[in-house]
Amino acid sequence: MSTDTAPSPHGYAQPAVDVRALTALLDGEYAEIRDLVRANLVTYASVLDEAETLDIDAYRERVRELVVEMAATGQTGMGFPEEYGGGGSIGASIAAFETLAFGDLSVLVKVGVQFGLFGGALLQLGTKRHHDAYLPDLITGKLMGCFAMTETGHGSNVQALATTAVYDPATEEFVLTTPDDRARKDYIGNAARHAELAVVFAQLEVAGASHGVHAFVVPVRVDGAPAPGVRIEDDGRKMGLNGVDNGRIWFDGVRVPREALLNRFADVTPDGVYESPIENPGRRFFTMLGTLVQGRVSVGGGAINAAKVALAIALTYAERRRQFRAASDEEEQVLLDYGLHQRRLLPLLARTYALHFAQDVVRTQLHDVFSGHTDDERSRRELESRAAGTKALGTWHATRTIQECREACGGAGYLAVNRFAALKADSDIFTTFEGDNHVLLQLVAKGLLTGYAHEFGDMDQREMVRYVTGLAVETVIEKTSAHKLLERVRDLLPGGDAWDQEAGLLDSEYHLAMLRFREEHMLAGAARRLKRGMAGEASPGTVFSQVQDHVIAVAHAHVERLVLEAFVEKVAAMPDGDNKVALGLLRDLFALTTIESDRAWFMEHGRLTGQRSKAITREINDLCRKLRPLAQDLVEAWGIPPEMLRAPDLVGPDA
Predict the structure, then answer these.
(1) CB-based contacts of 550: which residues, under 8 Å, 6+ apart?
(2) Rounded to the nearest 5 degrees, what angle is found at the Cα of 26, between the Cα atoms of 577 and 66?
(3) Per-residue pLDDT tens for 240-293?
């Protein structure tokens, strides 16, 4: 823990971080479940070594064993109803998953497949008959399953899946068929070795009419062998996550009983009549998919915690590793005393804290919606959008952070024993898990451009373009949650004296005003481009394609603003003290580096002068110097078990 205080360049005392209190703040209401997961990680720490020494088959079996053993402690079943042996808290289940990301990521993903995807689909899309039949054994790990949605030829376009499920009223069965290799289910976790059941997404056909994609419970193994009509292949070695048995599945006229349809939102009567409380097919489809949003929330949180591990290793190493000697010193300097090293790692530390608090917000929204506290259509739409955006920024951040931390550890960072090899290989897929990040940001932008219109879930890209072009640009802006603050932004930014002084650079109102202005300006610009494109009589699909880069930029700006708001609100709610000061420094560093990274845009749009841009860079460097003595405490506050850092060459006593 930091001890002595010293005057800062701005005249106030250097804070001393209370690590234990900061850990309690970060763990929040789920401290108990997080501590349980930490204890389990220590118990099974040997898997970090076994991942490198076992062959692929043995490693997969070891991961399966660990998942079942962890299930017995209760950590993996927190999101399921108590009457089936679960913990009854979706928020706790996400917190447990996030914390598990400190350890072996194959274990994390195996847990996600079994309890999040497979179990979540049964829980959220099924009804009591499915819950009674499957949840008790699923929660203990006795029944292993998989989530068979993705197809080789369709990827993120779930509505176009080609697997069919045709209802046969004569036998009261659904007949599932894979029409060609493009329709095979691919990259399916648990499929290659362990799954007995699959939740299969297929196009439902009843009496010659198509009713879109629905989910079915389908046996894929009987006594360890592929079930009749089911063909399974192993996807083989992957870039990482080789403890997870990904595979591909084909169905050749596989028959399942009528009750196999997960029927929360639609059902088929014995004599072949399709029924659903949601009449609109598009809205029905998006409602079904919306119940699976916890996967995106989980992956985003897991990625953020993987980034924490990389930073904990790199910053600990930077505190110990000496290199080169200043002219006036007899001893070589530690790496973290160099300004460039601070610049490489401390902004990433600040962004990790920012994303941690943004993840807190989306986890709370998920818990409230799925617990019924705020379960209305608008809340669900906002959750889907925020989950998509936080997942995108969190996973990109993890990829960037792990790479930078590896480089910051030099050659030692390249050794497998020091964890970066596994972190890089295992987390890389997170940017396309649960939806490619660019596709997810398009979802975010669609919500912004339509203002979460009632039709939001039903619109494809073409329909969204037509909708927006029917509105005035001002109407588009007014429909966003940020529009209420636009007048404040305008008051603050156009050359007002309050923002001409360098001291204003550390005002959170200034930071928020800048990010809000960028978002609003980009949003209005995207709407204008869509309207102009349609005025030129181009097709909606062509217009959207031409504006796609702008649309992604809008979404990215929107999510960064949400992340900053979450950080500002968290710090504002803290009691006065050193920890609040320390997090305030991190908040300012995150805000200013976000502005600096897009300074070209702000200067092009008259929000920054060259002088002010240089002042921001000076302030960032000063913030890095202030945070340098606190860095070790700030990573220790994450509560990563030392056994998870491994890395004897980097963080061991003789590093």
Answers:
(1) 522, 525, 526, 529
(2) 155
(3) 999 999 999 999 999 999 999 999 999 999 999 999 998 888 888 888 887 789
Could you give the CA distance from residue 65 to residue 428 in angstroms, rounded to a whole number? 24
Tell me the pLDDT tens digit for each residue of 551-593: 999 999 999 999 999 999 999 999 999 999 999 999 999 999 9
The whole-angstrom distance between residue 155's C-alpha and the CA centroid of its chain comes to: 18
Give CA–CA dist 600/245, Å, rounded.
45
Q: Which CATH number fits domain 147-281: 3.40.50.720, 3.40.50.20, 2.30.130.40, 2.40.110.10?
A: 2.40.110.10
In terms of Cα–Cα distance, which of 97, 70, 92 is closest to 79? 92
> For residues 238 and 246, is the Cβ–Cβ distance under 8 A?
yes
Q: Is 263 helix (H, G, I), strand (E, B) or coil?
A: coil
Q: How far apart are the C-alpha atoms of 134 and 259, rounded to whole Å?
A: 13
What are the residue ranges spanned by the domains of the chain? Answer: 19-144, 147-281, 294-636
C-alpha separations of 227 from 8, 61, 122, 173, 252 in Å = 69, 21, 20, 16, 11
Give me the amino acid identity at 312: A
pTM for the structure as a whole: 0.91
- What is d(CA 189, CA 568) in angstroms, rounded to the nearest whole number? 38
Name the one residue in this structure whose structure tokens are 């599945």. Answer: 249
Superfamily of domain 294-636: Butyryl-CoA Dehydrogenase, subunit A, domain 3 (1.20.140.10)
Instruction: Return the amino acid letter for 6.
Output: A
Q: Which residue stretches of 118-171 are H helix?
A: 119-125, 128-140
Q: Say if CB 361 and CB 566 are below 8 A apart.
A: yes
Q: Return the half-sphere exposure (C-beta side, CA atoms, 13 A cut-off) of residue 413.
A: 22
Q: Which CATH architecture has domain 19-144?
A: Orthogonal Bundle (1.10)
pLDDT at 10 over 50: no
